[in-house]
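U., I forgot to send this yesterday:
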Amino acid sequence: MELIEAILEEGIRRCDEVEVFGTNGTSLSLTLKGGILHSAELSRSWGVGIRTIEKGKIGFSSTSDPGRWRECLKAACESGTAATHQEWKGLPGPVEYPLRAPTHDPSLFPNLDPAQLLADALLEGAGEHPVTITGGSVDLSRGTIILANSRGVRYTAPRTLASISLEAIHGTSTGYEFDASVFMELDARAVGEQAAFLASHCDGGYDISTGDYDLVLSPIAVAQLLGHAVVPALSGRNVHAGRSRLSGELGKQCLDEGLSLYDDPFARGTGATDWDGEGVLARRIPFVNDGVLERFAYDLKTASRYGTESTASAVRSGYGGAPAIGVHNLVVDGERTGVFDDKALFVHDIVGAHTANPLTGDFSVELSNAYWIEGGIPGTPVRKAMYAGNIFEAFRSIGGLGKESRVVGSAILPPVRLNKQRIIGK
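Result:
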């Protein structure tokens, strides 16, 4: 904090406003290769990102070297002189807030013993199927983030994260599974078993003819499509720039009437936070309620430009990046049903979601680890096939939401059943 106070004191002499975002922490990473522990690495990190505002021009720079903070501040000020002037209402001031967000686990430490137990459980689970393990990882981290500005904000929050993954092969088939949590509550054995199951079960799949089929998308596949097509369309910046399919749709039905999308920063997800990346107090933001579009996401910069208020939707990828519009914990919710009861093609993963068009919602992706399922029982695997359509049209009439949700990145969501979807096969 002494260093951050020095940055703010020096920065306010040069600019109208100054903001410092700092991170520090320790992490332990284990790597698995060929079914054995390959390496273990303990690392410590420190960094600050400095944002300056002078007469409506915003500059930014970052450093991981505490001794070079003056150079970093100078670079931020100089980058601001080249920035385009915009309307700016100012950084937020400090307010009292209750600690509501589950941001850390007091029992989670980056120590070798708990990491080794997770690695052993991954391998034990994978041993349930005849596969070759090609890779895996266990990561445990603990640290603190700090946000301070020249208007008096001094916010700190402890952060912990545990993440695991495993990849296996069987013949020509690959299986990959992962999980992550703020808490030490990961079922590593289940993750390892699922990765091995996908590899072994999906080997030697059959071709599928081009046609319309009932699908059940796993939470992973749903998160990929929403993240690359729907989340960008909810950005106020994209809406006002005419780069969103949802422009002019406020108050109208845009998704299935049984579907709701909201950002809940207090949910038990990896994006939990009490304040956003700019120090605005976080709150639950209902984007879509029962299929009706209610709100867009704004950070301070976009809100100032378009005469509205921030929705506390500024997120940061770390100290090295300036804040940008995003989501903390995007929750997909609605009435839950037995989406696996009737026969459908289950899609565990998709390839190419990043090519989805956020302006139109059109996408064309390759199915990965797909197989028929009925009554919850996995059936015949399907060889390579493509799934093409429009995410907004597909989600205007869903066949149901699965009963259990899982955390995937910055989303908390269930499997989703979509009936009569176009699959391009052989």
